[in-house]
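Late entry, written up from scratch paper. The run itself happened at the end of the previous shift, but nothing got recorded in the book at the time, so transcribing now.
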Amino acid sequence: MSCATCSRTTRGWFGGCLAATVVIELFFLFILGLVGVNRFTVLSLWDFFIAIVIGVPLILGFVCVLSAIPSIAAIWLSERFCIRSLAFFGLAGGLVGAASQAMMFGRFNGLSWLFVVAGCFAGLNYWYVAGKYAGAGRVT
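Output as recorded:
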């Protein structure tokens, strides 16, 4: 794998991790907002700011660590076989999200769909950044 390919795929993977982080963080902010409505208290912007400042780096760290190995497998497949399909990356991202959730919790639970959806968005973002060029530098 050339240096340019490695750089492109790393940027794509990190962009996918950021996309998954945004999906998960938005879900938790939505839940935080619902908790405030159910308690008849008004959550301040400060509460949301703290949730973002603490939540985003924490979630990003977990997403990067848990998705690294399954993502490497999907990226290698796409580069090896020049797979540039948007559907492939969306499905592969969903599978990586499911695998990450299973690694974290040891089983599938009620939040499994969140990780699958976040993985799909990550896969689509990976395609946008790097996947549509998969196998471009490959010499046959």
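The helical segments are 3-38, 45-80, 86-105, 112-129.
(Scratch paper discarded after transcription.)
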